[in-house]
C-alpha cells in the first residue's frame, strides 16, 4: 500500500515538474509572443496594404489621365489640321493604344490607326464606344473588355470632335505588368476590377484575359468597409481590401489568402500550437515512462539493498528499466552486494583463523608463564632452603628477602596464567597475594602487627604491575622489619588508589618512623635503592612522610 | 506501466479521432471541370458560358448540398486549341472531377473527348454542336441541337426566303470539325430545297486579313445569298467588307457567330442576317426572366445566349449528380439519360440515348442590332 502511494506521488512530481518548468512558461511565452507577433504582423500588413492600394490607385488614375490627356490633345490637333495625322501620331507614340478610330456621326470609320484602308468606311455603330456617354473631363470611358482584335484587356476612351468621335482602344496590359512587378508576398494578389466586378488587371496576365468576375455586391460591400472583407476569386476565398476610384468607377484591390492575411504570427502560433501539443503528449508519455523506469529501478535497488541488509524487502522486478544509467547503477549495486558478501565470507574465515591462532598463543603464553612461575618458585624454594641451611641469621634474612622478591615475581606470572587475559593483571588479587606471602614469611600476627589492605580493583599492564608489586614487597618488608621493634605492635596499611588518570600506591605504618634526614635516593639500603629504581621505571614520583610513623606514596600514570 | 499504457491508448485514440474529424471537416467538394476558350477570338462566348455555369453552381450551393457535398467549378482555358483541350482533359481526369463541361468550338471538344471517354468521364457540350462529336465514344451530351440539324434547318429557311437561290459558302477551316460538315449538310439540304451552290470558299481564321480577303474573293461571284460558318468577328468583318465592296447580299450564318461581338462589329451591314438557334435571349418565359435578373445582378450585364447554355449545363450536371449519389463515370452518364427531361430555361431538355438534346429550334434575324425570333425553324 505504501509503495502504491509512493508511485503516485512520484508520478505527480514528474508531471508537476514537467508542467511547471516547461509547459506553463512555454505556453505563456509562446502564446503571448505569437499573439503579439500576429497583432503586429496584421497591423504591419494592413498598413502596407493601405500604402499599396493608395499607390496602385494613383498609378491607375495617372495611367488613365495620361491616356485621356493624350487623346484630348490629339483631338485638338486633329480639329485644327484634319487628315488623321494626329491619330496616327498618337498611335505611334502612345503604344498603350492598340487601335484608334475616328468615327463619323453615323458610326463609320473615317480614319484608323494603325492604318488599314480596308477598314475605312466600316460601320462601327454597334460598338459600345460609339454610344458611351462623354464625362465631365470630355472623355468617355467604356467598361473593360478583351479586344477581339488584339486579345488584350482593353477599355475604350472616346472624345467628341465636332460631329465626329475619336475612339482609342487602350490596352490595360501595362497595369497587369505593374501588378506583376509589385513584389507582393506569396499569397497576396493585387487586382484592378471594373465597375461590374470583371478583373481587368491581374499579376498573372492570362487571368486578366480570362476576365474572372467577382461578385459585384460583395465587391461594393467590401469597398465600403474600412476593414475589408472576404470574397471569392476563381473559387478561392480571399481576405480583401478594395478602394473605388472616382473617375473610372473601377476598384483597386489587395486580396490575400486567409493564411497570408493572418500574418506571420498565425503561422508561428500554429507551429507553436503543434509543437506545444506534441511536447505535452511527449512530455506526459516521457514522464510516465520515466516514473515507470525509476520505479522499476528503485524496486530493484530496494530489493538489492534489502539483501545487503540481510533483511530482504521484496523480490527484484524482472523488467528492464528505461534509463540506462539507472540500469547500470542497479547492476553495479548488485555487483557491489556480491563482492561485499564475498569479502565478508573471507573476513569471517580470517577472523576464525586469527581466533584459533590467538587461542593457541594464549595457551602457549600461559604455559610459558606457568613454567616461569614454577622456575621462580624453584628458585624461591632454593633460597628458602639456603636460608634454613645457614646459621647466621643476617645471612638467612638476606636469603629470605631475596626469596620474597623472587616470590613477588613468581606471583605475577601465576596471576598472569590464571587470569583470562595475559596483557594485564588485577592489582587487588596480586597485591593481596603478596601480602599473604609476606605474612607467611614474617608472621606479623605473632608480633602484634596487623596488616590491612585497601586496594582498588584496577588492572595494570605487566610492565607496570611487576615494578609496582616489587615496590610493595620492599616497602612492606621494611615496615615488617623496622617499624615495630621487638615487643611493640602496630598497624601497617597498604593502599592502592585508582584516580582514573593516575594511580597511587601507599604503604604506611605508625611505628618509630624514619631516621632524621632520611632521603630515599641517598639510602644505601638495597631495598630502598630498588624502590627508587623501580619508581623510575614507572616514571612515577616517590614521597616519604614521617615521623610519626612512615608513609611512602608512589604516584604514577599508567 | 498499466496506467501509462492506458494513457498512451487514450492519446492515440484522441489523435485518430481528431484526424477523422478534421478530414470530415475538409470533405472534398464535388468538382465539375470547365474547359473553355477564355482567351482569343471566341473568348466572349467562353466567358459567357463560364458566367452562366458559375451562377448555376452558386445557386445550387445556396440551395443545399449534392450528396452531402458542395459543387465546385474548376475552370481552365483551352484557348480554342486542341492540344490545350487534351491537356485540360487529362488534368481533369487526374483530379477526379465528376464531369466536364466544354468546350466552345467543336475542334477542341473533339480533341478532349477521346481523353475523357478513355477515363469514363462524361462531357456535356453546351455550345459546340458538330454532329461529328456524336460519331465517337458515347460519353458526350450535346446541350444544343446538333450542327447537322441546324445546318439543314437554316438551309430550308434560306431556300424558303429565296426560292431557287444561288449561294456562296464561306467557312473557317480553323474549326474544320464543325465548319466542313456544317457546310456539307447545308449544301445538301439547300440543293434538295431547290437552291444551288455557286461558290465554296474556305479560309483560315487568325487575323483580320483572312475574312476580308475571303469577302473580296466573293466580289466576282454571282450569288443571291452568302452563307457563313465562322466566328462572330470573322462573320461581321465579312459582312462589313461585302458592304463596302457593294455586294449587298442576304446573310445566313451558323449560330457559331451568334454573339454580341457579331452585333458590335457588324453595324448596319448585318441587318437581316439569319440564324437558327435553340436559345432566345429575349424569351419571356418565367425561367428566362428570372435567369436574366439573376445574371444581371451577378454580372451586371445581359446574358448572351451562351450564358443560358452554361447555366443549363450545370443544372443538368447537378441534377444527374444528385441522381447518381455524387458518383461520376458511367453511373453519371446513365443518370444524365435517365434523368431526362430536364426543366431548362426555355423548355424541357430531353437527351436521347445517343446524347443529343431534343430542343425546339427558332429562326432569328438581326433587327436593329438585336437577334429577334422570327419563327419556328423549318
Question: What does the model show?
Answer:
The complex is a heterodimer of chains A (558) and B (378). Chain A is α+β, with helices and mostly antiparallel strands and 558 residues long. Chain A has a domain at 363-556: Histidine kinase-like ATPase, C-terminal domain (Heat Shock Protein 90, 2-Layer Sandwich). Chain A has 12 helices and 18 strands. In chain A, the strands form 4 sheets. In chain A, strands 1, 2, 3, 4, 5 and 6 form a 6-stranded antiparallel beta sheet that branches. In chain A, strand 17 (541-545) and strand 18 form a beta hairpin. Chain A is rod-shaped and about 195 Å long. Chain A starts with a helix and ends with a strand. Chain B has helices at residues 2-25, 43-63, 82-95, 106-118, 147-161, 176-192, 209-217, 232-244, 260-266, 286-299, 305-324, 329-338, and strands at residues 30-36, 71-77, 99-102, 123-125, 140-142, 166-172, 196-203, 225-229, 250-253, 274-277, 342-344, 347-351, 357-358, 362-367, 370-376. Mean pLDDT of chain B is 89; it is low at 22-26. Chain B is an alpha/beta fold. Chain B has 12 helices and 15 strands. Chain B folds into 2 domains: 30-145 and 283-360, Response regulator (Rossmann fold); 148-277, Rossmann fold (3-Layer(aba) Sandwich), CATH 3.40.50.2300. In chain B, strand 1, helix 2 and strand 2 (71-77) form a beta-alpha-beta unit. Chain B has a 5-stranded parallel beta sheet, sandwiched between helices. In chain B, helix 3 (82-95) runs parallel beside helix 4 (106-118) and helix 11 (305-324) crosses helix 12. The A-B interface holds A 11, 107-108, 116, 118-119, 121-128, 145-146, 148-149, 151, 195-198, 206, 209-211, 213, 215-217, 234-235, 281, 284-285, 288-289, 291-292, 319 and B 1, 3-4, 7-8, 11, 38-41, 43-44, 47, 51, 54, 72-75, 77, 208, 212, 232-233, 240-241, 243-244, 261, 263-269, 297-301, 369.
